[in-house]
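Single Protein Entry

Contents — chain, fold
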Amino acid sequence: SIAGGPSQAVKLTGRLLIAAALAAVLIWAFRGSEFQPGKLAEGLSRARDYVSQMIPPDTSELPKAWRALVVTLQMAIVGTFLGSVAALPVSFLAARTSALPRWFSTAVKTGLNVLRAIPPLIYAVLFVYMVGLGPFPGALGIAVGSFVMLAKLFAETLEGVHPAPIEAVKAVGGSPAQVFAYGMLPQALPNFLSHTLYAWELNIGAATILGIVGAGGIGFELVAQINYFQWHKVATYVLMLIAMVLTADAVSFQIRKRFI
């Protein structure tokens, strides 16, 4: 017990130091962000004014909002599909449990981290300059963002699979591609599908935000109505967005329930 006493004291001191450091970081972050609850309370009254101007929603805008909603959904689907397809082989290159050298996997992961540091909005702006306005650059921006995120998630999934099937394929002289196809992929597929569905749900929101930079869809129309102070029409677009997000969540849940 005497030997254990100092050890416990050292552990307790370490935990207290970590807690103090976390508290200091939180205080620093709140101060840097100029967090002011008083201003938030004052702003609630202005928010009520905006909401009151949105009631009732302008139902004459529904056909236009529906078309924009469909475009947004299409952007999210195309971007998620392209991103997931591109992420599949790259995730194998990034996984440390693959048949490739460790230094190579580390280099691939570093490259993914560099790409991940750039927000999808920046990619969308770049693609707008490259191919012009519309949903196409938006879908490309979503594809790049999905690729970076899913490649990382897929690689982490591959690193967590059971090693026995991998070793079995290696034992019979399997190539790296065969190790991936027969030793890793069958175990990882359910998680791959779950990650892809999660990315799709996120991309619906991302597709809306990308409308700000001219990428089309409901985000573009929503910003236009806000700029013209057409709050009744804004309400219509917001309600359509809410309906789309809830529907996407329900669809994703059913797919997970049936296949995962």
